[in-house]
Amino acid sequence: MRDPIIAPSSLVHFTNPLARTLSLRTLPLHAHEILPSFTLYTYLNSSIAPLASHHLFPKTYPNLDARTKVNWNARAVSLLQSCCINTAALAVIYLDKERWTMGPRERVWGYTGASGMVQGFAAGYFLWDLMISAAHLDVHGPGVLMHAVSALAVSLLGFRPFCNYYGLNFVLYELSTPLLNIHWFMDKLGMTGSTAQLVNGIALVTTFGASRLVWGTYQSVRMYQDIWAAFEAPAGLPVPPWLAVAYVVSNTTLSVLNFYWFGKMITTLRKRFEKPGKEDDGMNSKK
């Protein structure tokens, strides 16, 4: 399935030298998705989110301290992005018939334009996320920074192309992100311990566990098996060791963070509804 958004030839030519240097062959075909999405998220974070929040929540947002406003704006961007990327990923997984016929070799080395489109938008977001996490490390913490680095690495390696098939499947981690951000916003809007937050919390734990732990672990195991099969392939087809290590380490880092955050999430929710109003750092990650 082709990328439905046509790449401008001038941008393709402009990004070709960088793509050759980094050995990311399909990167120029999706630079028109990476760069605009990065620019859009930067503008949303710096201008639109603060302005909209002032108007929509005049009794809350203006009274937040500087650190909380940084977190609020980033979560507003994360909420919008996760809803959009989930919709795009699910649509491509369902509509892209080429993906349905891929065997182990194609799942490692294969590529479709539609999958590249989703990874392009994801890469633009994770590039922005890396910038924000590094600039405000004291607010977001090292875990979020590690997540941004690993997610960006996985997205960019998909343009080699390498595991482009699985990169799209891993985007579905974001299914839990809207609920996580809504839960955080409820705290700031004085809804801590409310019935609405309890319902959202149950949905959050269920979705997080299903999308990141169950689905994510299953896809990781399948990916490891396919990479190992490709690694043992005949001459001319094997996976370079450094490439396999880079992708596996990045993906494993994301998996470990997901299990860690899930444990913190359960602990925080239990404390929160035993003692309404009490907050815990376990819900502070915007991932």
Q: Overview of this structure, please?
A:
It is built from twelve helices and no strands. It is mostly helical and 287 residues long. The chain has one domain. It is globular, with a radius of gyration of 20 Å. The protein starts with 8 loop residues before the first helix and ends in a 13-residue tail after the last helix. About 2% of the residues have low confidence.
Number of strands: 0
- Unreliably modeled segments: 276-282
Globally, the shape reads globular
> Would you list the SSEs in sequence order as H and E?
HHHHHHHHHHHH
End-to-end Cα distance, whole Å, is 29 Å
Question: How much helicity do the residues have?
Answer: over 70%
Overall pLDDT, averaged? 91
Number of domains: 1
Helix and strand content put the structural class at: mainly alpha
In terms of quaternary structure, what is this?
A: single chain
Strand content: under 5%
| Main beta sheet strand tally, sense and closure | none
Radius of gyration: 20 Å
Q: What is the count of DSSP helices, taking H or I runs of 4+ residues?
A: 12
List the helices and strands and how they pair.
Blueprint: H1 9-22, H2 31-56, H3 66-95, H4 97-100, H5 104-109, H6 113-135, H7 137-140, H8 142-157, H9 164-171, H10 177-188, H11 195-231, H12 241-274
Helix pairs in contact: 2-3, 2-6, 3-6, 3-10, 6-8, 6-9, 8-12, 10-11, 11-12
